[in-house]
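Kindly review this protein for my students:
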Amino acid sequence: MGPYHPLLQVDVAHGYYADGRCRGLRFVPAGTTAERLRRADALVRADGGSLRVHGPAEAIDRLRADAEDLSGTFEEGAALSWAVFATDDDFACGTEDAADRPRELLWVEPPPAGHAVDADHADSTVDAIGTLEARPKALDASELTPLLTPHDRRVIPFALLSLPLSRLPAHGPSRDPAGWPVRYRWPLAPRATVWKYCLLGDWTEPALAVVDLAGETGFTAPVPERLDDGTPMLAIRSRGLVPLAQRPAHRFQLRSRPDGAAGDGSASATHGTPRTHDKVLIRRLPSAAAQRLARETIAGQPALVSEIHVHR
C-alpha cells in the first residue's frame, strides 16, 4: 500500500466564534459510510471544526467502484454521510438555525453540479472551495430513513452531512494531484437577537440612552418593567436584531442626555448617534451572552431576546 493522501476536507466556519472556526462538532458516520471507508482503507480525522478523509491513491477508485453498477452508473443516494452533533455549550444558543426542532434537522450537501465555487476562500494548493448548502429536512423524509439510528431519533443531530460519491473527481491523487483534496466550506451564521438592557437599581439621571459608537444600532427609550420576581427595572431594547458573538466588536455606551432627547423617540435616539454634551455613565456596556435568551412579544410579533443585567 502506498502513502496516504488527503482526499476530502470539510471546514466549518462560524460567525459566533472569535476566530471564525466552529467548535465542538462531533461527526458520526451514518448509513454505509463507515463500511465504505473501511473497504477503501480510508481514515477519518475530525477536530470539532473540520472533517478530513485520508487514504491511499487507489481509495478513490475503490469508493467509486463501490457505488457504481456495471454500466458505470452510480447507485441512487450513494454518498459519504455523517450525523453532526453539537457539543459546545454556546453552540445551540449562538447559532442561527433554520430547522424546526425537534421535527427537523439540517440537511447539508454540495450545491448542484456546475454551481460556482468560492474562489475567495481558495488557497495556493487548490483552485477553489465549494460552499455547502444547508436546508431543513423533516425527520420522516425518505432520505433520512437509512441514515438515522434509533438513538439519532431520540437525540437528534444538528445536521446530516451528505457528500455524493458521484461528485468526486474521476481520477485519484496519483493521476491528478492538483484535484485533491476535494475541499468544502460549511458556513454557519451567529444567532441574532433583540438586545435588552435591564437597568437595576437607582438610575436617577435624566433621559437615559444606550448609544452605539459606530452609529449602526438604535435603541428604544427606557421603559419601566419588572423582572419575574417583581424587581423593578428600566428596559432598553435594540430596535433591530444584533448578532451574538464570543467576543463582540460592538461598543454600546449608557449615556444621560440632559435635554431629554433620548426619551422622545427622536432621530438621534433612533440611530444611536453620540453627542458631545451627553454624560457618559458606562463607557462600554456588557455584551449579550449566548445562553441568556428569553422570548417576548414585541409589536405583536414573537421575538428572541438577550437579557443583559446592569446593576447599580
